[in-house]
Structures are given as structure tokens and as C-alpha cells.
Amino acid sequence: MTTLILETEPIATQVSITDEKLIVDLIDGRSLSIPLTWYPRLLHAAIAERQRWQLLGDGCAIEWPDLDEHIGIEGLLAGRRSGESQKSFERWLSARVKKMSI
């Protein structure tokens, strides 16, 4: 088994989202491109919600407060998808639908 050992801590500087991808620019010049299907809350979010992000811990993680979504940069590099269970996601999605219909 191989363990991921990073020489430096990955730090995000910029985030952008298309209809299909989460794109994260790192301080060392690399860019990560991750399918939105890996993060269902982002996939089902409105464009305005996707654009309201903030960097946490000097760029170690990204947060979308409107979506209660937090993604660590190290996890992106390791290829980790959302760890949210389907049941939890369905509850979140159901609450959104109710909130939007009010």
C-alpha cells in the first residue's frame, strides 16, 4: 500500500466552478479539475451559491456556507470524493426543495 506524502502543504489561491467541474488553483501553479459529480451539493447548487465560497485555513480548505459544504485541498489531491451518505444528501436536498417552495 502506498501512502500519500506531501512535500509541502497544498494551498488553494482561487476557485472556479463550471457546470461540470470544480477547478482549484494552487499556490505552486498547479490547477486541479474535479468532476462536480464527486460533490453532489455543488452539483445541485444554484450558480450564485456555487460562487459564494471562501478559503479556510489560509487556503487549506474551501467552504460554501450556503451549502454547508467543506472540501479540503489535501483530500482533492488524494482523489477523495464527498464522504456524505446518500441518506444525508437526500435529507439536505429535500430541505432545499421545501425551502425554495416557501
Explain this structure:
The protein has one domain: NE0471 N-terminal domain-like (2-Layer Sandwich), CATH 3.30.2020. Helix content is 30%, strand content 27%. The chain has helices spanning 40-43, 47-51, 73-78, 86-101; strands at residues 12-17, 21-26, 31-35, 54-56, 61-64, 69-72. A three-stranded antiparallel beta sheet has the order 1-2-3. Strand 2 (21-26) and strand 3 (31-35) form a beta hairpin. The protein starts with 11 loop residues before the first strand and ends with a helix. The mean pLDDT is 91.
Low-confidence stretches: none
> What series of H and E elements makes up the topology?
EEEHHEEEHH
The total strand number stands at 6
Count of helical stretches: 4
What features would you highlight for this structure?
102 residues, alpha+beta, NE0471 N-terminal domain-like, three-stranded antiparallel beta sheet, globular
In short:
The chain has helices at about 40-45, 45-50, 75-80, 85-100, and strands spanning about 10-15, 20-25, 30-35, 55, 60-65, 70.
Chart the SSEs and their pairings.
Layout: E1 12-17, E2 21-26, E3 31-35, H1 40-43, H2 47-51, E4 54-56, E5 61-64, E6 69-72, H3 73-78, H4 86-101
Antiparallel strand pairs: 1-2, 2-3, 4-5, 5-6
